[in-house]
Amino acid sequence: MYSLDLVDSHLQRCRGVPRSYVESRLKTKDYRNVLCNMDNVEEKCLRTRDVFRRIESRKHELGIVEHSHSVLSCFDQKRFVEDDGIETMAFGHNRIPAEFRVFPTV
């Protein structure tokens, strides 16, 4: 997920989320709010979930299927964020303290 405010345009991407949802509902402040307010994660889980509907074919029969998907989340399951909040290391790196070496489950 990323959002870029350029001089003459605005670019947003959110993997696995329909483009129409991203263009109509998500703003740069939503991205910033999720990433910058990680201090109070325990009080308020900073995730955005929504339900998307799409037409799918199974055994040549059309139907509408609903998918619940996490749109924005401050949790990164593949990287360990250091104390400064900027630097990251891949889980399993030898410089990660021993108490944090268990893989996260979200």
Task: Write structural notes for this entry.
- With 106 residues, the chain is an alpha+beta fold.
- It has two domains: 2-74, no CATH class; 76-106, no CATH class.
- Helix content is 15%, strand content 37%.
- It is built from two helices and six strands, in the order ββααββββ.
- It has helices spanning 19-25, 28-36, and strands spanning 2-5, 10-13, 47-58, 61-73, 79-81, 88-90.
- The strands form three sheets. A two-stranded antiparallel sheet has the order 1-2.
- A hairpin with a 6-residue loop joins strand 5 and strand 6 (88-90).
- The radius of gyration is 18 Å and the shape is flat.
- The model has no long low-confidence stretch (mean pLDDT 77).
Order of helices and strands: EEHHEEEE
Strand content: 35-45%
Strand order of the largest sheet: 1-2
- Unreliable parts: none
Determine the number of helices (DSSP H or I, runs of at least 4 residues): 2
Terminal Cα separation, in Å?
Answer: 17 Å
Structural class: alpha+beta
Radius of gyration: 18 Å
Give the overall form.
Answer: flat
Mean pLDDT: 77
Largest sheet: 2 strands, antiparallel
